[in-house]
Amino acid sequence: MKLVKFLVLGGMLFLATSVHAVDSVSLEAGSNFKNPDTNMWRVGVQWDWGKKWFEDSPVTIGGYWDVSAGSWHTDDADGSHDIGDFREALNKSFLRTPFFVQP
User: Fold this and answer.
1) What is the phi/psi pair of residue 19, to 5°?
2) Burial class (CB within 10 angstroms; exposed 0-12, middle 13-18, buried 19+) of 8
């Protein structure tokens, strides 16, 4: 299972850096203190979409790409359980520039 995690992470980083320059990296980890056999992790990379629409108007549309992978694991009375996920998303942002009305 650890080999799969490292292959997924390495593949994500390779694809992200070969296509675009990575703007940020996100890391998450967690564990249940009452049951130390429950834990999770997630790693992701983000980069600017590289486009902005309507820059001359009061509303600008832009965004960034987000690619991440994660895993959740627990050992309990019913056995060992693992869940993994992969996510790719284009996050859009709508920015409104402030405006003033002069009399």
Assistant:
1) -90, -45
2) middle
Higher per-residue confidence, 40 vs 15: 40
Query: Among candidates 75, 6, 68, 3, which has minimal Cα distance to 39?
Result: 75
Residue with tokens 């869940």: 83
20, 68, 43, 73 alpha-carbon torsion, rounded to 10°: -160
Look at the block and give the residue holding tokens 């998450």: 28
CB count, 10 Å around CB of 43?
19
**Tokens 């996100």 belong to which residue?**
26
Digit-coded pLDDT (tens) for 27-83: 888 887 776 788 888 999 988 877 777 777 777 888 888 899 999 888 878 888 888
- Among 22, 96, 95, 29, smallest CA distance to 65 is for 22
